[in-house]
Write a structure and sequence with these properties.
Layout lengths: L3 E3 L2 E3 L3 E3 L8 H10 L3 E3 L17 E4 L2 E4 L8 H14 L4 E6 L6 H14 L3 E5 L13 H5 L1 H14 L4 E5 L6 H10 L4 E4 L3 E3 L3 E2 L4 E2 L10 E5 L3 H14 L3 E5 L5 H9 L4 E4 L1 H6 L3 H15 L5 H4 L19 E4 L9 H9 L4 E3 L5 E3 L9 H5 L6 E4 L4 H5 L8
Parallel strand pairs: 3-4, 3-16, 4-7, 7-8, 8-9, 9-10, 10-15, 15-16
Antiparallel strand pairs: 1-2, 5-6, 6-14, 11-14, 12-13, 17-20, 18-19
Bound molecules: flavin mononucleotide (FMN).
Length: about 400
C-alpha cells in the first residue's frame, strides 16, 4: 500500500533517511535500510573532506529542534565510492542517493563527482546547494541555492555529466524559491529536496552566561533542524510544486506519520528524516509506516500518489485571498473556563469576549474582529471553532471548511 516511485525508482514507501549523521557511512546506511527505510541520502560528499565533524560539542537541542555545527562529510570521495558500491550490492531494491557538494565554485569538480558517484551505483544525486555554514564565502552552500544563476549553472553541469536523475537540495532561506526551482528545472533537474537547515544560534544559558554549542568556548550560527523547521519547509515544498513540475522530497521536522502526511498532501512525493532519527533511532520507521498505512485506509486513499498534493490548491498568492467574515462559536460543554480567550481578545483582539458570572465566555459578534486568536489560544480541542461565512473560493470548490 505504501509503495511509490521517485525519479523513476520504485520505492517500498515514501520514507527516506536524510543526509546527516545517520547516513555517515555504509554501516549506518545499511542498518537504516535493514530497519525498513526505503532509501537513504548519503552525508554530503565533497572532494575536500570537512573539518566540521571535529568540533566538539557541536549540537544544541533548543526550542524542540536541534542546532548543529556540522559541515559536510569528513570522509573522502574514494572511500564514499566504495560505500556506495557496497550498499547497492547489498540493497539493490533500495534507493541510494549520493549527496554531493563541490568545495568551491568549480563546475569541473561538480561534474567529476557526479560522474563518479553515478558510476559507483548511486540511483540519483542530490546537489547540496544549501549547507548553512562554511561555504557561503565561496559562492557554494547556501549562497548557491539563493542564486538562480549559480543554481542553474551547477545543475546544468551536473545533469550533463550524470546518467542518473539529479535533485537539488534547497534551504528555507533560498530567497525566491520559485525562481531557483524554475531555474534548476530548466537545467534538467528531476526534483528538489526541501529543506536543509536554517542558520541559527543554539540555546542561550542566561544563568551561566553561556551559549550552546561552544567548542573551545566560542559559538557561531549553526543549522536549525527538527520541529521548528516544519512550517517553513511545508511552505517551500508548496512553493516549488506551485512553480514547477519537479518531483519533491519534503524534509524538515518529520517525526510522526502525520508530519509526513502533511508534506505529501502539500505535494511531496517522498519525505526524508534526519533529526527524528537522531533522537529516536532507525526504529522510527515502524511508526511512520504503520501510522501512514492506517491513515490511508481510514481516508480511503488507494496509494501514496493519490494523496500527493491534495491540499495544494488551497495554497494561493496573498493577493488572491478573499475577505470574509468568520465569528467564533464556543461550545460551553468543552469550555475549561481558563479565561485565555477572554484575555487575548481583550488585549490583542477586538475586546469582543466577556465572561458570564460562571466564567463562561460570551462573544459580542458586532465587536468581533474575526481573527481567530481566541481559537488559537484555547487549550480545549474543538471548544472554539470559527464559523466561516462568505469564503467564496471554498464554496466554488464545494468545500465549506476543514473536514473533521
Ligand atoms: C547534524 C546534522 C547534519 C546534517 N548534515 C547534512 C549534510 O551533510 N548534508 C545535507 O544536505 N544536509 C545535512 N543535514 C540537514 C538534513 O538532511 C535535513 O535537511 C535537515 O536537518 C532538516 O530535516 P530534519 O528536521 O528531519 O532534521 C544535517 C542535519 C543535521 C541535524
Amino acid at each position: 500500500m505504501l509503495s511509490t516511485d521517485f525519479c523513476g525508482f520504485a520505492l517500498t514507501s515514501p520514507f527516506l533517511l536524510a543526509s546527516g549523521p545517520a547516513t555517515r557511512d555504509a554501516d549506518h546506511i545499511a542498518r537504516g535500510l535493514e530497519a525498513g527505510w526505503a532509501g537513504a541520502v548519503t552525508k554530503t560528499i565533497s572532494t575536500e573532506p570537512s573539518s566540521g565533524l571535529r568540533l566538539s560539542p557541536r549540537f544544541s537541542a533548543v526550542g524542540g529542534g536541534l542546532v548543529n555545527l556540522e559541515l559536510l562529510s569528513d570522509r573522502g570521495l574514494e572511500s564514499w565510492l566504495k560505500d556506495i558500491e557496497s550498499v547497492k550490492r547489498s540493497f539493490p531494491d533500495r534507493m541510494l542517493i549520493a549527496s554531493i557538494a563541490a568545495p568551491a565554485y568549480s563546475l569541473g569538480e561538480w561534474r567529476s563527482m557526479a560522474g563518479q558517484c553515478g558510476a559507483a551505483g548511486a540511483d540519483a544525486l542530490e546537489l547540496n546547494l544549501s549547507c548553512p555554514h562554511g561555504l557561503g564565502g565561496r559562492d557554494m552552500g547556501i549562497a548557491a541555492g539563493r542564486s538562480p544563476e549559480i543554481a542553474r549553472e551547477v545543475t546544468a553541469a551536473v545533469c550533463e555529466a550524470a546518467d542518473v536523475p539529479v535533485l537539488v537540495k534547497l534551504g528555507p532561506g533560498a530567497g525566491d524559491v520559485a525562481a531557483v526551482a524554475a531555474a534548476v528545472e530548466r537545467s534538467g533537474a528531476a526534483g528538489v529536496s526541501a529543506v536543509n537547515t536554517v542558520p541559527a544560534l543554539g540555546k542561550v544559558d542566561v544563568e551561566n552566561l553561556w551559549i550552546e554549542p561552544s567548542p573551545g568556548g566560542l559559538t557561531s550560527p549553526g543549522g536549525l533542524s527538527g520541529a521548528p523547521l516544519k512550517p517553513v519547509a511545508l511552505r517551500v515544498v508548496a512553493e516549488v510544486r506551485r512553480a514547477t513540475s519537479l518531483e519533491v522530497s519534503g524534509i524538515g521536522g518529520i517525526t510522526t506519520w502525520s508530519d509526513a502526511c502533511e508534506f505529501i498532501l502539500l505535494g511531496a512525493r517522498t519525505v526524508q528524516v534526519c533529526t527524528g532519527v537522531m533522537f529516536k533511532g532507525f526504529g522510527l520507521i515502524e511508526d511512520l509506516r504503520s501510522g501512514l498505512t492506517d491513515y490511508m485506509i481510514r481516508n480511503r486513499f488507494a496509494g501514496v500518489r493519490a494523496m500527493e498534493g491534495r491540499l495544494l490548491d488551497m495554497v494561493a498568492d496573498y493577493e488572491d485571498l478573499e475577505a470574509g467574515r468568520c465569528v467564533p462559536r464556543i461550545r460551553a460543554d468543552l469550555c475549561l473556563k481558563d479565561d485565555l480567550c477572554y484575555v487575548s481578545c481583550r488585549d490583542a483582539g477586538g475586546g469582543a469576549i466577556t465572561l458570564a458570572p460562571d466564567r463562561s465566555p460570551v462573544v459580542d459578534v458586532e465587536k468581533c474582529l474575526g481573527c481567530s486568536l481566541c481559537m488559537q489560544v484555547c487549550p480545549s480541542p474543538g471548544c472554539i471553532t470559527m464559523e466561516a461565512a462568505g469564503a467564496l473560493r471554498r464554496k466554488e470548490r464545494g468545500r465549506h471548511g476543514p473536514r473533521h
